[in-house]
Amino acid sequence: MGIDLFDVEQLLLTEAAEPPLPPQDAEARDRVWDMAVRANPSLFDGPVVACGGLKWMDPCILRLSWVRVTYRHYALRRVPGATALPSLFVNVVQPTDDGRVLAARMSPSTAAPGRWQLPGGSVEPPRDGAALDESALAGQAARELAEELGIDAAAEDLKLWVVTCGENGSIGLTYLAPALPEVTLRAAFAMVAAAERVQGREPELDGIALVHSPDELAGLAGPHADYLDPIVRRFSGCR
């Protein structure tokens, strides 16, 4: 499966309206979503941001239109003849101080059990009249690091490193975090996972691995996010 990687120096964001959906597609979407929830009751139909379109304003300036939807919107991918908007997510390359990249494995209760990926998550729409801009996106990436790995990174310390376009046209905004020692990363992850279990919740991530190269990444059993190999390959080639 082909994954496109783009270098972006500036990201411009514009809100757009959700395209109208034929009633029969909406009904089929809701049936698919309800079946998915019965199979996995932890699924939550919360607000998220989808990608409404991309337009290059300059070789390194990308205009991205975004649309407010909820998670059930993506059930349209399983409705024959229907069209779902591409998803929009942030993730983070968290390096170690010896040049490895942290990969994380999704817990069994998630929508992608056992999948190896970068720490991150879907982009959430802004609240209370706030803007969705580059600063807000970096803030969401920093929050994902804190919630999933227990790593406190300031938003201004995260650099938009590459934009990916992958399966279903999904757009990933990949940030680069400051390098940290392995012992710091493992201790922080163990602490945040233990805190979740104390609260009676299963952590979203149930394991981490630190890899130098795509060859080491290939040794991780289970499915991999489509962008993971290209991102690790790019990072290892940049060192």
Automatic annotation (TrEMBL):
Residue stretches making up the Nudix hydrolase domain: 83-234
Matching InterPro entries: NUDIX_hydrolase-like_dom_sf, NUDIX_hydrolase_dom
Keyword Hydrolase set for record: yes
GO molecular function: hydrolase activity
Keywords: Hydrolase
Highest taxon of the lineage: Bacteria
Protein name in UniProt: NUDIX hydrolase
